[in-house]
């Protein structure tokens, strides 16, 4: 199992150890809730939006080390971004920001991307 | 930082006494055991003494019933492929279980592609093989039953004597993967009535890369590896003399220490279990509460995923694993826990603590100190936990 840890970059381990923005937002403007069909892991992402800009983001994740690290990273990446900019954040971008992920763990970053998309969709729906 | 190794089912440290026993064969005693000169004869003597020790560990009648292999995995391959080939005119049906190690399961899958029919027996919630299903699956084409003696992930001990009497009555050969059981449980192959039994040195404080297959006298088996006349034509290749000498010493020590070590490990393991139960809510013991390896504790921490627990424990210097070491690279939950009927979330959240004789009470106290905050922190992060609060 230590093997797996060796496979994770410093940055992944750093985010895994000290995940940023864990928790829920009291009255969020959007909630994303997604499950990973590959491994059964689950992520929830909360966003707060002001004048079209994401001002806060928090997450809860049931998943492996990579899932936790990518959740943490995606909340960092979206803060201060406009909705349009946030929609352009891909799973690859999240993985790259973490210094890469082992190949078997690439799918975990998809969870983060989808949670973000789903939270934005929810935000758009609520606004209508 | 304190280092606590609780992953002895993955592998064990080589005992200093074992290392001492091996070193001469890596230095001065380099002869080939097949050579007739003195250099060779000394090496041969070491191999035969080790064979006798390994035979004694499982109470084999004759040391020649032990064949050394390159691993436990090779012993499993040899047993199953060897019988399937040797008896191919008699039948083409093998019965095994859903919870075997991949060293057995993937051999069976390989044989299935070659036209062998394989039945994978289900297990109950504790991981015990369904004996009624076993009886029902036997046909006149069944040539081999392969059921592990004890499971590596949850430690459940299978009713191998009962299975042996069924196999004997029907005239079917019985193999058991005893890689986790040998040295941890008393084993008497004559009393059980098993025909083939796999072992591996590195699970009992011996070196890696050396295993053995017990082959009862009279059993016809096709070798897996062809070549020279080594191991009485059953396993070609110049013997790994140092590895064999180490295995012999490890087997000797395991047999000598078993009656003392086993209650010690049970005590320490149950102390860990009780401590976890006291400090952490919503856990589940996986495996049979009683019929279980003395050193194994497999626990599901609800609402959590195993890897995140293990990585956190690793950061605190504690080594444990999820499922078996070889499957940690895969994404699916453990095939063993799924076969035992655990739902996906419980199966994901399982951690195996496997203790060894070097572990002390202080090690367990340390784990009981660092584990609860980890579980607490991860649960706060889990979207599943919130729903049930
Ligand atoms: C039950 C079981 N069978 C077989 C093996 C394989 O043994 P080895 O590592 O010597 O190939 C292991 C250990 O990994 C095991 O636990
Ligand atoms: S293995 Fe499931 S998200 Fe990483």
TrEMBL record, chain A:
Q: Name one GO molecular function term.
A: iron-sulfur cluster binding
Its domain of life reads Bacteria
Give one Pfam family, short name only. Answer: NifU_N
Where is the NIF system FeS cluster assembly NifU N-terminal domain positioned along the sequence? 8-127
What is one process in the GO biological process aspect for this record? iron-sulfur cluster assembly
Q: Which InterPro entries would you find in this protein's record?
A: NIF_FeS_clus_asmbl_NifU-like, NIF_FeS_clus_asmbl_NifU_N
> What is the name of this protein?
Fe-S cluster assembly scaffold protein NifU
Q: Which gene encodes it?
A: nifU
From TrEMBL, chain B:
The chain residues annotated with the modification N6-(pyridoxal phosphate)lysine are: 203
Q: What InterPro entries does the record point to?
A: Aminotrans_V_dom (IPR000192), Aminotrans_V_PyrdxlP_BS (IPR020578), Cys_deSase_IscS (IPR010240), Cys_deSase_NifS_bac/arc (IPR017772), Cysteine_dSase (IPR016454), PyrdxlP-dep_Trfase (IPR015424), PyrdxlP-dep_Trfase_major (IPR015421), PyrdxlP-dep_Trfase_small (IPR015422)
Instruction: Give its E.C. classification number.
Output: 2.8.1.7
This protein's pathway reads: Cofactor biosynthesis; iron-sulfur cluster biosynthesis
Query: Can you say where in the cell this protein is located?
Result: Cytoplasm
Q: Which SUPFAM superfamilies does the protein's record reference?
A: PLP-dependent transferases
Q: What sections of the protein cross the membrane?
A: none
What are the residue boundaries of the Aminotransferase class V domain, all occurrences included?
4-367
The protein depicted here goes by the name Cysteine desulfurase IscS
What is the scientific name of the source organism?
Candidatus Aquitaenariimonas noxiae
State the organism's lineage.
Bacteria, Pseudomonadati, Candidatus Omnitrophota, Candidatus Aquitaenariimonas
